[in-house]
Amino acid sequence: MYKNSLVSIEDLSNEEIEDILDLAQEMQQNLRAFPTLASGNIMASLFFEASTRTRGSFESAMNRLGGRTITTTGIGSSSLEKGETLADTVRVWSSYSDLIVLRHPWEGAARLAVDYASVPVINAGDGGHEHPTQTLCDLFTLRAEKRNLEGLKVALCGDLKHGRTVHSLIFGLLRFGAELYFVPGEGLDLPEHVKTKIEAQYKRPIEKIPAGDFQALYGGQTGGSQDGEPLDALYMTPSKPHLRTLFEDEPNFEFKTSPGREVVFYVTRRQTERETGSPSAQAPVGKYPRISKATMKKRFSRATVLHPLPRVDELSYDMDDDHRSKYFVQAAYGVPVRMALISLILELKPWKKAGERRAESQVEEPTIVATQGIECANPNCVTNRESQSCESRFLVFTEPQVRFTCNYCGWEIAPIFYGTQQRGRKIYKPIGKLRFKSQHQLFQFRFFCSEDEALGEGFVSVSSAVETAAPVFEVKD
Ligand code: NCD
């Protein structure tokens, strides 16, 4: 957890997640038992996007702990409306509070806030990027329902493209060895950078499988270009990590078409507000998975149905009295989970399992920067929305090839060429030829996503330089 802030679910170790859930469980026994724990502390709840549950439960949690809350809702009611930067806004609110809870429509907004705040920041949703505290509520609900987080089978349904709750939950679940089924709305599949991360960093291959029993969720819908056609395939990950690096030719996992009756359905609404300005904004509503008594029937008789809410029409009201539905309990758990999180972040309660190891996670990873030629391609990334406040920074990954992910929004850039100086000449070469021993060496190169970019910056290809050039210089240490 960097600077005691929570931006992404990946900021938390498994031990930290367990500490939060354990304390939440203790607090849930009696929400009134901690009336002075946070007294003297002020939480700034800055919600620049609509919210019911997240803001309500954060504020309720702080009140239950005896702290106080100051709040602003909607860009229109703050000086952001007058053109103030998010950086200045956060700097100022830091001086009014001990903790900032931020929801903002830009991806990476919470990360930027951490750079400028002098108090811890909790990400309460940054555009379509992440919503880590919702994931904590989801994991808490699953642990309460299933007793154990290990090896769950979870079908993530709906808007997997823009759904920030889904993006955070995927990585929370993979940590605990879940088997995931992706059941998207038409054209609303997972973003490529999320898929790459699942496969490359978490070593879980994503496999196309027959839709099987999940077909029923798409049944009998109207609208959409492929109306009436059956869904033939969807994607899943196996529950065991794929040891790709050890057993390159010998995958040791199985993909099962049917998740069995005990599957967890995590249902999400179509995030139409995030489609504005994108080509899909005009797209008709195509096939979309819907949960109702009719689509569930007996085939998923021991399923659990979760939804971060609000629902629109993807979750029928006839499910509300069904024994499988847990979404209102899930919303209620927002209070003890956020009470626990606030208490731990403000260090009013000790981290038990995470303990000493927390100090290690305070170190920032090496990153390469925009001045080396690359910029984030996500127009809604805070680095493009408020470039005066943040320089693009990218984390470096080498599997399956050299690629960078935006430190703010997680989008991926895969450069095709790199540029280097050889005896005063600027040479560019295919990225596959790049050799380096430590990531710090990457600071010496420039990176390009096209040949034109390299030429535009005055670099020449290695072949055109070869007549005059000396042997290729590679950094060795
Ligand atoms: C979600 C959100 O804001 O991302 N709601 C929530 O926080 N419980 C889901 C949504 O808006 O669809």
How would you describe this protein?
It is a single chain. The chain has 13 helices and 18 strands. By secondary structure, it is α/β, with parallel strands linked by helices. The protein folds into three domains: 2-130 and 335-360, 3-Layer(aba) Sandwich (Rossmann fold), CATH 3.40.50.1370; 133-331, Aspartate/ornithine carbamoyltransferase (Rossmann fold), CATH 3.40.50.1370; 368-467, no CATH class. The longest helix has 16 residues, at 14-29. The chain starts with 13 loop residues before the first helix and ends in a 12-residue tail after the last helix. It binds N-carbamoyl-L-aspartate.
Features of the shown structure:
single chain, disordered C terminus, Rossmann fold, 477 residues, 3 domains, binds N-carbamoyl-L-aspartate, 13 helices, alpha/beta
How would you state the average pLDDT, rounded? 86
- CATH superfamily of the largest domain, please? Aspartate/ornithine carbamoyltransferase
**Which CATH top level class of the largest domain fits?**
Alpha Beta
Q: Strand-residue fraction?
A: 15-25%
Question: How many helices?
Answer: 13
Structural class assignment: alpha/beta
Give the name of the CATH architecture of the largest domain.
3-Layer(aba) Sandwich
Largest sheet: 6 strands, mixed
Small-molecule binders here are: N-carbamoyl-L-aspartate
Distance between the termini: 30 Å
- The amount of helix comes to 10-25%
| Unreliable stretches covering 5 or more consecutive residues | 222-228, 243-252, 467-477
